[in-house]
Amino acid sequence: MDQEKIKNHFNNHKGLEMYFSPEIAEQFAELEQNDKNFRVAEIVDRTIMQEIKDMTDPIYAAELGGGAHPDRYHEFFSKLLKEPHGHIDWVDISPYMLELAEKYISDEKYQNRKEVITFIKNEILEYLQGLENEKLDLAIMKYVIDDINNLDELFKLLALKLKQGGKIITTIGYSNPKMKSLHTNARFLYNGEQFPDNEIRILKDGDNFTVKFFKVSGDPNSGYLEGAETVKYFHSAKKIKQLAESYGFDIFLGDWKDLIKQDNQGGESMNQEILVLTKK
Ligand SMILES: C[S@@+](CC[C@H](N)C(=O)[O-])C[C@H]1O[C@@H](n2cnc3c(N)ncnc32)[C@H](O)[C@@H]1O
Hints:
7-stranded mixed sheet; 3-stranded antiparallel sheet; 2 domains; alpha/beta; binds S-adenosylmethionine; 29% strand; 280 residues; globular; Rossmann fold
């Protein structure tokens, strides 16, 4: 895609440009090969397995903003691969992330996942708009909900496209309104502006923050990964709860350990905030 086209395409999706560079997309996907990322994927996998246990097979799911790693979610994929086969649409706006996604499941261990995945290059809201009403049993969003500016539209569409009892399971990255400047992997800017390392900024609904990734994780002096910056949108817990109520969802919002029964936690003790919405 040439620069002009990217610009037009991203009128409403400022800050996703990094996923449109094949080199940056690849480096980003490699950075995701870290312990925390695997553990979060496992937490999501366990949450999925608990939340879908009473659903009727075959399951129709969508991973929204799927990115490069369908080599996670082992329990869920083995369920999809059991007869009658379920299905997952792996939706991402970036052709490069989807190429990488195919690559990450091309070895023998994961190849059979291709039988149940369709890779779809589309924007999340557009994909949902195009879907038949009440098609989905499950939508998964991992590290992606804050890429969406128009949360109201997302909830509205999900309310239409999920079956009754259908669910959305998403990680919540930044519900704490107190934002630091320095993080392990990245520096955060408040509404586009850098601020001192020892200060915080208080995020409100409607605010955005830019994430600039360091070349070497944990080392702010290593410089920034060139071109790797992304703009994210802050959504407060209050707003999420209000939207859930107005679109007819039951809601769980909190640490995953408060949702998943002890014996299913498998020794994992990491904190991770998640949101589970169930269509009433
Ligand atoms: C931070 S990555 C997370 C990827 C993946 N969910 C994971 O946990 O590894 C965000 C991904 O979402 C995609 N994305 C962000 N906003 C999107 C949108 N509005 N529509 C489609 N894809 C989007 C990006 O291209 C990128 O691959």
